User: What shape does this take?
Amino acid sequence: MKKDKLHIHWYPGHIAKAERQLKEQLGLVDVVIEVRDARLPLSSGYTNIKKLLGDKPRLLLLNKSDLADKSILKDWCEYLEKITDCPVIISEAKGSRDLSEVIKISVELAEPKIQILIAKGLLRRPARVMVVGMPNVGKSSIINKLTKSSKTKIGAKAGVTRQQQWVRINPKLDLLDTPGIIPTRQDDQLQATKLAFVSSVSENAYSSEPVAQALLDILGEKYHSSVSEYYKVEHLTLSDIAISRNWILKGGSPDTERTSKYILKDYREGRIGLFVLDDLPDF
Assistant: This one.
């Protein structure tokens, strides 16, 4: 695979709009729940998150852990807690075992802000929280899980556009029911490619063949045995897998385009196996 064929194209206009909308939303809340994809604990995080959020308290969720290699997620939690100074929770795309902990920590993180308001003579109010993250990390599923037990919409607040709706999760917590989309601006093409693996980048921004081969290259380095066993090939190339599946074009050449789409789908749905594709730094 030629490296120059692998390039993720970004759209600055979309990025600027997403940043503007996110900053407007951030001004409404006390705490941010940042959702990342557990398969990419670093790459699905925004490089300038601190600049974007300012001093806003943050809870970090490693979501879609049911698609990730759980054996190393605990180490990732320890690492991320150390470098971000934020609490980290492992979350699944399905199921709600983690919800009580998410609610408890969110309320605790907001308490200093609530105390400041009380000191100014204001009445105690519920903590205000929003969920942010890159596209397709599971922000909406987290919101849906949090709001499932409470359908009490409390409407727009003063100074807030009508589109912004709040849901009372419990007497101590209000949730902005619109996810904040962190724009996927990346200068690092490897990071951008990894985001394409998990559909955090629009399919219009890349060609499937070089991205699928890049995925096979990383899987080959980290999980070669299980992936080669799944595809029944020794060499993890699009051509070899296409031949193994008998996906051949007229004229006898392997159908690598069809193969690439199946590989990306297999990975995204957890069929090949459960993997973490970022390398855990020493700490």
User: Anything to note?
Assistant: The first helix runs from residue 12 to 26. Confidence is low (pLDDT under 50) at residues 156-162.
